């Protein structure tokens, strides 16, 4: 049925265009021969095609535009006729003899345009006559297009200030009255469209009103005459609403014309124009019309007019139909006013003078009360727009911004966590506005209702908002410098700090989770205060929050906290402890906190990370000359190594970390150092792979010879380590030969040779030329052996080492003498 209806419309439109073009042809012929009577005859017949009721507004518009083009040509003919002496008054009377009212009125408007231009009568009189005569067409579609034509031909002929048609002192009022009257009648026609049954849907099938009613009510009869059972009232209403929406610009064009009238000043707009327009808007009681016309008022009239008439404009909002999308209307009004304030700071006093914020706030409250079924999204959107307005117009009034947030909290109270995605996105927009305006979370933290709004976000959106807050801090390099502010901040970003109720770990994307936690880690590094006591409070506050994060988060959040604490320790180096007790922050107190904090990682478990942090803490304690503290950190690191780290590669890495850190320690006495060194060498010798053992053992040689510590230069034990490493490397070669038939690479031997050379240069008396010479010969022999595996990298390494020896020999002096005895 729908396809048939479309095809029928196309046929009716084609027939209408054909009839119009045929009569237009004869009209053109009459115009060319200056035959006025025939021109009027055929033009009336041409315009009779616009009397159809079978076309939808979209199709009717196509027919109307063709007629409009022809009427412009007819208007030019009328102008020429008046120049040739034809009386415009007689012509104005003559066209009124057309048989049908619709062609008659189109012709009357066309001649009326020429009549006004001739200035033989005041423009206001002609316009008044035309707008009254157009009342004769009450069919909605035909009437709308007729009045649209009247508005089009008269818009440049209004008796406005500065216009050539300006009359007496009241001429502007006459122009306004004409446009308002035309607007009122067009709006009535437009609203009336919703009550049509269609484009004479029933009449075109020759049904009486009674029969039509029966057909609408009886399903079987509808099917019997070929009507779809789906063509019910709801479908018809949707169709009519769509058609009405297509025609809305015809009505709104009147308001645009009003806004262009020069004589409409603020006083006239306030006293006459706006009240009359709003009266029509409110009284029409039509959802579509009210929404569109309110939007038109906001868009076409100047910003300063809206500012000075806020009372009147806002007073109409609660009177609109409950189904009107008032949130969008008010949002656009506030957006315009916000942009107006942003574009010119000189107008800001006017906003204060008219109490714009108070009026908008009250109006929003009344609208929400009047529309009891307004969805949560609508409420949040209104307050989001009001907050944006407040931030632009009153950026210094944080109490206003907090008041808006508080009002929003009040309206959301009792609703619990929101599940509507659009509503939660709007809350994110609401909360982001202060961050974007001030570029400073510090300011947002002063808003007491800010965290209360976040309580209504679902878990995922809470994380999104927390990420936005952190990104704002990082982007603007905001300094959060007090423990109270940190407490408030971590309350806002708790969605990233810990698992909120209902979080399902399996659903978390690992990449997203890692990115979120890395952002938290960067945030922790941004927290700083020059005052040591306050900084320690900040560290304690952060620790309190991050320890609630669970095992997945601690590996991300504990390290930055540890390094922030160590930074504070270094600030305290050399300062005397407070003799009066626990009042002041001391390195010992911080190290106690660090010990407890890192311990949480060993329980996660994340033993490798915990070991690294223990060693970092030990090094910091070394710099503070706190031997017991440093020893305790090493002890914890060793316990982790022995009890938690079982992976062979992790053991190798951990061994090197222990050796490297221990080598830099100077705080230990002989007994403690021997204990720790003995353990480290023991770990080295127990590694799984022989090459790893060899490398770790010769690395231990550095534990017995430290350049800047005269008391740690034990040449014998260095030599023992190197010999032991050589034995292990040799054993590795033999095992490889037994297992694979080849001795493998000589790289470990070359590495050990380089260690020999290092300690030889440092003056270790136990490292002799003979030992070096024998090692060179050993390597040469291994490389020339038939069982050795070719290894270009090892060959290059050995050749480079020999070149180094040769270079040292050529240096001369003490170094040259030392190396002179080595044969290469």
UniProtKB/TrEMBL annotation:
Pfam family, one: Vps35
Protein localization: Cytoplasm; Endosome membrane; Golgi apparatus, trans-Golgi network membrane; Prevacuolar compartment membrane
The family this protein is said to belong to: Belongs to the VPS35 family.
The protein's name in its UniProt record: Vacuolar protein sorting-associated protein 35
GO annotations of cellular component type: cytosol; endosome membrane; Golgi apparatus; late endosome; retromer, cargo-selective complex
GO biological process: intracellular protein transport; retrograde transport, endosome to Golgi
Major place of residence: cytoplasm
Bilayer disposition of the protein: Peripheral membrane protein
Keyword tags: Cytoplasm, Endosome, Golgi apparatus, Membrane, Protein transport, Transport
Free-text function comment from the UniProt entry: Plays a role in vesicular protein sorting.
């Amino acid at each position: 049925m729908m396809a048939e209806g479309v095809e029928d419309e196309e046929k009716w439109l084609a027939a209408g265009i054909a009839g119009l073009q045929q009569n237009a042809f004869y009209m053109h012929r009459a115009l060319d021969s200056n035959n006025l009577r025939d021109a009027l005859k055929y033009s009336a017949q041409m315009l009779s095609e616009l009397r159809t009721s079978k076309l939808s507004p979209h199709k009717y518009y196509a027919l109307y535009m063709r007629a409009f083009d022809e009427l412009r040509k007819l208007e030019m003919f009328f102008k020429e006729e008046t120049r040739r002496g034809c009386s415009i008054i007689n012509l104005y009377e003559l066209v009124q003899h057309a048989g049908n009212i619709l062609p008659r009125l189109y012709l009357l408007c066309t001649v009326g345009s020429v009549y006004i231009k001739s200035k033989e009568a005041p423009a206001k009189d002609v316009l008044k006559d035309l707008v009254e005569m157009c009342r004769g067409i009450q069919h909605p579609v035909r009437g709308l297009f007729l009045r649209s034509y009247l508005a089009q031909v008269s818009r440049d002929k209004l008796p406005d200030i500065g216009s050539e048609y300006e009359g007496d002192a009241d001429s502007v009022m006459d122009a306004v009255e004409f446009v308002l009257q035309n607007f009122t009648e067009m709006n009535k026609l437009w609203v009336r469209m919703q009550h049509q049954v269609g484009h004479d849907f029933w009449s075109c099938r020759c049904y009486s009103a009674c029969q039509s009613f029966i057909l609408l009510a009886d399903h079987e009869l509808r099917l019997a005459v070929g009507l779809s059972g789906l063509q019910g009232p709801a479908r018809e209403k949707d169709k009519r609403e769509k058609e009405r929406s297509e025609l809305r610009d015809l009505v709104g064009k009147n308001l645009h014309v009003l806004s262009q009238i020069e004589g409409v000043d603020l006083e006239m707009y306030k006293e006459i124009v706006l009240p009359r327009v709003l009266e029509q808007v409110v009284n029409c009681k039509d959802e579509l019309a009210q929404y569109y016309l309110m939007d038109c008022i906001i868009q076409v009239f100047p910003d300063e007019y809206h500012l000075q008439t806020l009372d009147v404009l806002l007073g109409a909002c609660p009177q609109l139909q409950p189904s009107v999308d008032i949130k969008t209307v008010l949002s656009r009004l506030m957006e315009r006013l916000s942009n107006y304030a942003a574009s010119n700071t000189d107008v800001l006093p006017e906003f204060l003078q008219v109490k714009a914020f108070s009026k908008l706030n009250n109006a929003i409250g009344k609208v929400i009360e009047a529309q009891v079924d307004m969805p949560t999204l609508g409420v949040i959107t209104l307050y989001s727009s009001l907050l944006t307005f407040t931030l632009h117009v009153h950026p210094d009034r944080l109490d206003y911004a907090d008041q808006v947030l508080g009002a929003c909290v009040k309206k959301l109270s009792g609703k619990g966590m929101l599940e509507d995605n659009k509503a939660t996105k709007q809350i994110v927009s609401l909360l982001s506005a202060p961050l974007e305006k001030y570029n400073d979370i510090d300011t947002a933290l002063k808003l007491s209702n800010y965290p209360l709004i976040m309580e209504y976000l679902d878990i995922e959106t809470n994380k999104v908002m927390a990420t936005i807050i952190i990104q704002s801090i990082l982007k603007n390099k905001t300094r959060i410098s007090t423990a109270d502010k940190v407490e408030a901040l971590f309350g806002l970003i708790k969605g990233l700090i810990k698992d909120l109720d209902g979080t399902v770990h399996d659903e978390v994307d690992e990449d997203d989770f890692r990115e979120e936690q890395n952002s938290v880690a960067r945030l922790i590094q941004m927290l700083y205060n020059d005052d040591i006591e306050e900084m320690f409070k900040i560290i304690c506050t952060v620790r309190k929050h991050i320890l609630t994060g669970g095992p997945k988060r601690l590996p991300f959040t504990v390290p930055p906290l540890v390094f922030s604490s160590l930074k504070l320790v270094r600030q305290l180096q050399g300062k005397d402890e407070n003799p009066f007790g626990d009042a002041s922050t001391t390195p010992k107190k911080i190290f106690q906190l660090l010990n407890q904090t890192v311990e949480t990682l060993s329980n996660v478990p994340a033993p490798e990370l915990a070991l690294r942090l223990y060693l970092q803490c030990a090094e910091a304690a070394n710099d503070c000359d706190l031997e017991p503290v440093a020893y305790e950190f090493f002890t914890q690191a060793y316990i982790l190594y022995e009890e938690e780290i079982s992976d062979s590669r992790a053991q190798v890495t951990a061994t090197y970390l222990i050796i490297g850190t221990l080598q830099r320690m100077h705080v230990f006495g002989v007994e403690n150092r021997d204990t720790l060194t003995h353990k480290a060498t023991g770990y080295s010798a127990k590694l799984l792979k022989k090459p790893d053992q060899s490398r770790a053992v010769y690395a231990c040689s550095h534990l017995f010879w430290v350049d800047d510590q005269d008391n740690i230069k034990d040449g014998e034990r260095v030599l023992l380590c190197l010999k032991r490493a050589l034995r292990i490397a040799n054993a590795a070669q033999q095992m490889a030969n037994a297992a694979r038939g080849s001795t493998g690479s000589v790289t470990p031997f070359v590495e050990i040779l380089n260690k020999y050379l290092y300690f030889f240069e440092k003056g270790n008396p136990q490292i002799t030329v003979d030992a070096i010479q024998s090692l060179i010969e050993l390597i040469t022999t291994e490389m020339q052996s038939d069982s050795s595996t070719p290894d270009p990298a090892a060959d290059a390494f050995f050749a480079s080492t020999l070149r180094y020896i040769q270079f040292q020999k050529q240096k001369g002096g003490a170094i040259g003498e030392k190396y002179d005895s080595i044969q290469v």
